[in-house]
Design brief:
Radius of gyration: 19 Å
Structural class: mainly alpha
Number of strands: 0
Order of helices and strands: HHHHHHHHHHHH
Largest sheet: none
Strand content: under 5%
Distance between the termini: 34 Å
Shape: globular
Number of domains: 1
Helix content: over 70%
Number of helices: 12
Length: 272
């Protein structure tokens, strides 16, 4: 995530540490943390080629849940665009390129296993960073999806969803995420074995579902049960949620940035 200090100075980690209104943030914030944690664990899934599929599936499931909790709904193309940042119609080249991508990724996994003993500490550091980055990006985007719903910008047809998605990406790229990432990195460093177990459990759950060829739509509407994962990771989810509930200054700054982005995108059309 890029930093842009001139646009948004990094908020201090202790800035305005007063609880968010419980009626607004519970249980919604905890659900965001839980799903962001699962998505952050995807690089740890010890099954080649499953992690990317799992990440996209869980992102779509998270966004679908957020929209449903707000009493709305999105068609599959809009959901794909809002959750993952691309529209199915733009993926025509994927079939031609998928074999090459799969081959490269498989070779990378094999090479990583060979080098693991030599560079174990470096790989662990890089993997923790990847997991933290995955959590952070997912949490920020999901939080902003929820705020866009509060603002009445969603649900919408594809052009409106694209506008919201672009505003969300620009907002996440503009803000300095270090206050959140410091909290997450500290929690992850003290729970590495737990996170690894959670990733293995997630991999065992998702592997047969992917092999069965079931459509994502079936898994987005309650058929993917994550009870074991939630029970295993519950204490860590509670810890992170409690920390994030106090970051009111940071989260309100995030909301304001999105509001400004959306307003600036709407202004030319209104003037015209």
């Amino acid at each position: 995530m890029s930093e842009n200090p001139s646009e948004t100075p990094p908020p201090a980690i202790d800035e305005q540490r007063s609880p968010l209104p419980a009626a607004k943030e519970k249980p919604g914030l905890r659900r965001l943390v839980f799903h962001s944690l699962l998505i952050g664990l995807c690089p740890l899934i010890p099954i080649p080629l499953l992690d990317d599929w799992a990440r996209d599936l869980l992102k779509k499931r998270l966004v679908a849940e957020i929209v449903r909790r707000h009493g709305g709904g999105l068609a599959d193309p809009e959901l794909q665009l809002l959750a993952c940042g691309h529209h199915p119609a733009t993926l025509g080249g994927c079939v031609r390129g998928c074999f090459g991508v799969a081959l490269i990724k498989t070779l990378t996994v094999v090479a990583a296993k060979i080098l693991k003993k030599i560079f174990r500490k470096i790989l662990i550091f890089l993997t923790i960073k990847e997991c933290v980055d995955g959590f952070s990006r997912t949490f920020h985007e999901a939080y902003l999806v929820r705020h866009a719903l509060d603002l009445g910008r969603l649900p919408a047809p594809v052009p409106g969803v694209l506008e919201v998605r672009q505003a969300i990406e620009a907002t996440v790229d503009a803000i300095d995420p270090r206050p959140i990432e410091q909290l997450v990195r500290h929690a992850f460093a003290g729970s590495w074995k737990l996170l690894t177990r959670g990733a293995r459990l997630l991999g065992r759950l998702l592997k047969p579902l992917r092999r069965s060829g079931r459509q994502d739509r079936e898994l987005l509407h309650g058929e993917l049960r994550l009870d074991q994962e939630e029970e295993l990771l519950g204490d860590l989810v509670d810890e992170l949620t409690a920390e994030l509930e106090h970051e009111t200054g940071y989260l309100r700054q995030l909301e304001k940035l999105l509001e400004n982005r959306l307003a600036s995108r709407a202004a030319p059309g209104e003037d015209g």
